[in-house]
Design a protein that fits this description.
mainly alpha, 0% strand, 2 domains
Length: 480
């Protein structure tokens, strides 16, 4: 069930209405049933995979907390991690590993006898697997009490607003909320609905509109040249941002309507002045997950390496991050490039500070943001391309100075329209985001009813007339 569908609108209204109409003691059950139904809407049988890991992690948490010795606690944690990573490995990485084994066998004249699995990746598997793992790790570390209510723990893993594409929550933030009673609060409900509307606007008016142009560029139908590739990569940066942050806004908004607070997942990432800063602003729930559970333990464990422990930790963490995003080498290259960039920033921090401090602040900030954004556009090529062949063609196109106006007339009328409207809607989005980022204007919007209705009324007109309803697509991060 997609957030940008009529089915979800009906589902959300029905569940939310019933939620506030039920006594508090039955609400967890309603949300658990609704979450199961929401997930089963995609592929019903995969609910069994979720059920398998939920049962294991529920008991693992209790056993970890009750264990008498550190060794026993560690055994139960390892059991839980093996179960979760094992499921992820089978469904997401088995065929990828098998492909690479086949390539090696062919290289040395052998035949790979390992069979391929004809399976479909369960939607959102990486997200709810990581959320479940954070629970047992936090119980093991003593930061979270084991949840004894099986239904509440199940709801923690399956809560429908963030089940499929995050944010990846921590048990300290969510579990206690499922025990609390939330009453109807008009201001909170309106705030949640506005956030949901903004998320839908980003998805339908911006992301899905830009995707038409991006898909056309990456398909190679019109060839590749500098201007065309730059347009496609520029549009993709905002397509994926509006697509993913739009999902997060709808998730946060729908949860807020019912009283739940989910963690913020984006904080104006394209304002970042370094790649390190970018990862503090982009997909915050994942970057902090990797920082807490992978990067920091690596650096502590290898602290005798000095600075190289940080470099190794960054590159390895982003190697895993690339693999988390997709079972393919282009994703891994995307991740490693980020790790290398952050390592460079770490190793040259003093030199860069000394060098750039000689520039005026405004010029320093502008150049820093521009360099970061251009780097992101480049590495997104590996993320978006369906193969190395496509990625290399796009990169070569950056240096192909064919005359773009000669290529432009070959575009279909529909593509020319999408190019024009996409650019216009993107300009609107940048203006809207700039105003909301400005504290002064944000307060004016909150305090002035007339201004708020004027702005949202204008956005509604844009939504109706320029929304890409015929090109409605699934959210990009659903595939992970």
């Amino acid at each position: 069930m997609l957030f940008n569908s009529i089915e979800f609108l009906i589902f959300f209204i029905f569940v939310t209405t019933l939620y506030f109409g039920l006594p508090h003691k039955f609400r967890w059950l309603l949300l658990l049933i609704a979450s199961c139904g929401f997930y089963m809407f995609f592929k019903p049988e995969y609910i069994l995979i979720l059920g398998f890991t939920i049962v294991i992690d529920y008991y693992a948490g209790i056993w970890i907390e009750s264990a008498k010795t550190p060794a026993a606690r560690k055994r139960f944690l390892v059991m839980s991690l093996i179960a979760n990573i094992g499921v992820l490995a089978i469904f997401k990485y088995y065929n990828f590993i098998n492909d690479n084994i086949t390539g090696l066998c062919n290289l040395f004249g052998y035949t790979n006898q390992i069979p391929y699995l004809h399976i479909i990746l369960p939607i959102g598997l990486s997200f709810h697997t990581f959320q479940a793992m954070s629970y047992t790790i936090e119980v093991y570390r003593g930061n979270q009490k084991a949840e004894r209510h099986f239904g509440i723990y199940s709801l923690y893993v399956m809560f429908y607003p963030q089940l499929v594409a995050g944010p990846i929550e921590r048990p300290q933030n969510m579990l206690h909320q499922f025990h609390e009673k939330f009453t109807w609060d008009y201001d909170r409900v309106m705030s949640g609905l506005r956030l949901m509307a903004w998320g839908l606007f980003k998805k339908i008016v911006i992301a899905d509109r830009l995707s038409i142009v991006v898909d056309a560029m990456y398909s190679g139908t019109y060839g590749y040249n500098t201007v065309w590739v730059f347009i496609g990569t520029f549009f993709f940066a905002y397509q994926i941002y509006c697509d993913f942050s739009g999902y997060s806004d709808i998730a946060l908004g729908s949860a807020r309507v019912m009283g739940f607070t989910l963690m913020k997942n984006f904080n104006f990432p394209f304002q970042a002045k370094t790649i390190t800063d970018y990862w503090r602003r982009w997909h915050i729930s994942l970057s902090t997950w990797f920082s807490d559970y992978l990067y920091t333990p690596i650096v502590i464990n290898r602290r005798d390496w000095g600075k190289w422990a940080v470099v190794f930790g960054l590159v390895f963490t982003f190697f895993i991050s690339g693999l988390w995003h997709g079972a393919g080498w282009p994703f891994i290259i995307w991740g490693v490039l980020h790790g290398i960039a952050m390592s460079y920033e770490f190793m040259t921090k003093k030199w860069r500070k000394k060098t750039f401090s000689k520039l005026p602040v405004w010029l320093n900030n502008t150049l820093s943001q521009l360099i970061v954004f251009l780097f992101l556009q480049f590495v997104w090529i590996f993320f978006r391309a369906d193969s190395f062949h496509t990625a290399f063609n796009v990169i070569k196109g950056l240096f192909n100075y064919e005359n773009f106006p000669d290529q432009f007339p070959a575009f279909t009328a529909a593509l020319r329209y999408s190019l024009l409207v996409g650019a216009l809607m993107l300009a609107h989005f940048l203006v809207f985001e700039k105003f909301w980022r400005n504290e002064k204007w944000s307060k004016k919007l909150d305090s002035s009813v007339g201004l708020r209705y004027a702005v949202f009324g204008y956005m509604f007109l844009l939504f109706v007339f320029f929304g890409s309803f015929k090109n409605a697509q699934s959210f990009i991060y659903f595939q992970f």
